[in-house]
Structures are given as C-alpha cells and as structure tokens.
Amino acid sequence: MNSKIIDQNKQGWNKVAHHFNGKDALPSYGPFTQTEEELGLFGDLKNKKVLEIGYGSGHSLRYMADQGVSELWGVDLSESQKKAAEMTLKGLDTHLYCAPMEKDIGLPTNYFDVVFSIYAIGWTTQLQQTFTLIYNYLKPGGQFIFSWDHPLYAHLKMEEGKVYLEGSYQQEDLMTFENFKGEGVPMVVHKRKLATYINTLIQVGFTIEALIESDVPAACDGDADVSDRYYSLYKARKFPTTFIIKASK
Ligand SMILES: C[S@@+](CC[C@H](N)C(=O)[O-])C[C@H]1O[C@@H](n2cnc3c(N)ncnc32)[C@H](O)[C@@H]1O
C-alpha cells in the first residue's frame, strides 16, 4: 500500500467531497453512461448483502436500499464522505467504514452476494490487493460490478471539433491532478490499461461475465454541441467515457 499517496488523496477527498454529492451514483454508472435501468446488470437485489467500495455521498447505497437489499456495507477513504453518506442514509441500518479499499480491515469473508463500485476503483494504489480482498469478501457465486473512466478516454482531447490522442495509452504511470476541482489539493491516480483491469481480475480468480464500453444513456437524445470539456456528450457519442465490468466468484 502506498501510504503517502493514500494520505494525500484522503486529504484531497476530504476537501473535494462536496463536489460529488449525489454524483456518479446508481442508477447512473458514470458521466454520459448508460444506467442500471438500461443495462440491468445487478438483477434482483431483494435480501442481498451488498458492499460498496468508495461509497462517496452514499447515494448508490441508498439506491440499493430502495431495491430491498438486506444489508448495506461500505468502505471509503474520506471522513467527509462518511459524514455525507451518514446523512444520505439516515434512518437505515448501515455498516460504513472509513479506510483505504486496499487495506484488509477485517470485513467478513465469503459473506457478500454483491460487491460494487461506481467510479472509485481506479483510485486504488494496489489493484491486485484490492481485487483479492473483494474476491475474498464475496460468497462463491457472488457478483462484483464496477464502473470507472475508460482508460483511453482520458487521452482523448478535443480541438476545433476534432478528437486527438494526447500522451501515451501504453504508459501505466502515476497521474497528478495538481488542483482537483479547483480546491488546490494535489491528488494522485494510477493510469492503467483496460487489459490490466481485466487480467488482474482473472489472476485473482474472477470469471468475467460482461465488459461494457458504454454508449450514452437514452435520455441524452438531443444534439451534441462541440465541446472541449473533459466529459462532453459530443465526445461520449464517439467514444465511451466509462467501462463497466461484471465478474463473478
Ligand atoms: C467519485 S466518488 C464515488 C461516488 C460514489 N459512487 C457515490 O455513490 O456517491 C470516489 C470515491 O472514492 C473514494 N476513494 C478514493 N480513494 C480511495 C481508496 N484508496 N479507498 C477507498 N475509497 C477511496 C473517495 O473518497 C470518493 O468518495
């Protein structure tokens, strides 16, 4: 575990948490991404024990509660997010932990029907350790579903309506956001290839059920103006912002 990066990112998330209240939460899988209503990856969630990795403001867990799950568990790095999630989930019986996802904090093993993560997994400093822990938390036959930025999308820039490639998709290194969300806190994320996510899942024992390179949601049916923003409908119509993986133990 890279404690220096984790401590730095924790401070960062404590500051930027308020920008993400209710953002990137189920039924959405991410920006300009198809929804769970469109994709139906989870199936019937009634009486399932679920664990979210990187629960953020708790809105995805709230969605899970609305689907009738029996137990709501979550791990997130940031104390500010934990406070936000406690507000969102007020009145519900929850097990919320403030810890890095890559650390073994003694969560029950062979216990969960579903482990899921919406736009948080890529923050791990140790992908293999994180996937191994998740594999262990799941019951045999349990499902792991997560979404994250499509690793090529980050390299696609726009100029005068044309999309071009910046930097190298080949290089898997650290990327620093010097001023994330304008809050003046540097945050560090590992750049990984799509194959790294898939092969690491296979290495720790998962069976991959589906890989989705998402189209835009049906709700985005209007014209897409040319835009140089990082997430734009214009760009998302040409290339997926998000990939989603469903795997089983
Ligand atoms: C974009 S937010 C996820 C939003 C969330 N899905 C929701 O429903 O609100 C990413 C989350 O990952 C958490 N995070 C970042 N690094 C982490 C780590 N190493 N371990 C656990 N959580 C982490 C952040 O604190 C943040 O809450």
Could you explain how this protein is built, in words?
The model has no long low-confidence stretch (mean pLDDT 93). The chain has a 7-stranded mixed sheet, sandwiched between helices. It has a two-stranded antiparallel ribbon with strand order 6-7. Helix content is 25%, strand content 26%. Helix 5 packs across helix 6. The protein has 249 residues and is an alpha/beta fold. It is globular. It has one domain: 3-Layer(aba) Sandwich (Rossmann fold), CATH 3.40.50. It binds S-adenosylmethionine. The site of S-adenosylmethionine has 25 residues, from helix 1, helix 3 and strand 2.
Outline the fold blueprint.
Blueprint: H1 3-16, H2 36-39, E1 49-53, H3 59-66, E2 71-76, H4 79-88, E3 94-98, E4 112-118, H5 127-137, E5 138-149, E6 156-159, E7 162-165, E8 174-177, E9 187-190, H6 194-204, E10 207-213, H7 233-236, E11 242-248
Parallel strand pairs: 1-2, 1-4, 2-3, 4-5
Antiparallel strand pairs: 5-11, 6-7, 8-9, 10-11
Helix pairs in contact: 5-6
The structure holds S-adenosylmethionine (SAM).
Query: Total number of β-strand segments?
Result: 11
- Strand and helix order: HHEHEHEEHEEEEEHEHE
Distance linking N and C termini: 24 Å
- Average pLDDT, rounded to a whole number, is 93
Q: What does the overall shape look like?
A: globular
Percent in helix: 10-25%
What profile does the largest beta sheet have? 7 strands, mixed
Strand portion: 25-35%
Strands side by side in the biggest sheet: 3-2-1-4-5-11-10
Poorly predicted spans? none
CATH homologous superfamily (4th level) name? Vaccinia Virus protein VP39
The kinds of small molecule bound in this structure are: S-adenosylmethionine
Number of helices, where a helix is a run of at least 4 consecutive DSSP H or I residues: 7
Number of domains: 1
Q: Which structural class do you get from the secondary structure elements?
A: alpha/beta
